[in-house]
Amino acid sequence: MDLIKQGCIDIWIDEIVPCLKNVETGEVKETVVFKIESRAYLKKFQKKDGWHINWNEVPKDVEVFALALKDTNEIQGLVGVRNDKDSNAAYLHWACTAPHNNIHDFGKQKYTGVGGHLFAIAADKSIQWGYEGAVHGFAANEELLNHYIKVFQAEYLGMLHQYQFFIDETKAKELLEVYHYEWNET
Q1: Rounded CA gap, 50 and 39, in Å?
Q2: What share of the chain is helix, strand, coil (3-state, %, to 5)?
Q3: Is residue 183 assigned to a domain?
Q4: Which CATH number belongs to the domain containing residue 81 in this structure?
Q5: Is residue 125 in some structural domain?
Q6: Helix 169-178 with 114-128: angle, nearest 10 deg
Q7: Tally of structural domains, the chain
Q8: Within 10 A of 111 (CB to CB), how many other CB atoms are there?
């Protein structure tokens, strides 16, 4: 099955911090979240440039949100979330740090805290859609599945995918208590 259509989460949670933290200076940076409406704009975020997927190819029913620095609007990560009415939860379709924050692929990172923020955005959308924070998704592998279980107290489901996980309403709300960002609704 095509991973872009199915979705797959392969992001590591490096540090639980309310905002993003500059790795070199320790400076904490406030963040903003905004929805990317334009598929043409999403063409800027391509696999060949270190974004894991071509973001303009995600299914049309997946809403894409950017996590950016509040002071510069520089994008630090992207998350795709779908309103999964059948599951009464937000489906975390894909999450990806900006290449300059991806220590696993590029050996360095500018900011920590991106991954947790992207999960929090999915929980936030779940609440907005009336699901009280419930989120599910497919981890890329067993190691990441166990990582999400450890970090977020996610539950293993394994019904629709061998590495399917679920973050319940209580854990999602705890997650949202940690992460701070503003919604920039334009």
Answers
A1: 18
A2: 30, 30, 40
A3: no
A4: 3.40.630.30
A5: yes
A6: 130
A7: 1
A8: 28
**In sequence order, which ranges of the chain are alpha helices (DSSP H)?**
3-6, 39-42, 103-106, 114-128, 142-152, 169-178
pLDDT tens digits, one per residue of 106-155: 788 999 999 999 999 999 999 999 999 999 999 999 999 999 999 999 99
CB 148 within 8 A of CB 165: yes
Residue 84 gets the label, from left (phi > 0), alpha (psi -120 to 50) or beta, of beta
Is residue 157 within 8 Å of 166, Cβ to Cβ?
yes
**35: containing domain:** 3-178
The candidate with the shortest Cα–Cα distance to 78, out of 55, 47, 102, 104, is 55
pTM exceeds 0.85 for this model: yes
Q: How many CA atoms lie within 13 A of 85 on its CB side?
A: 1
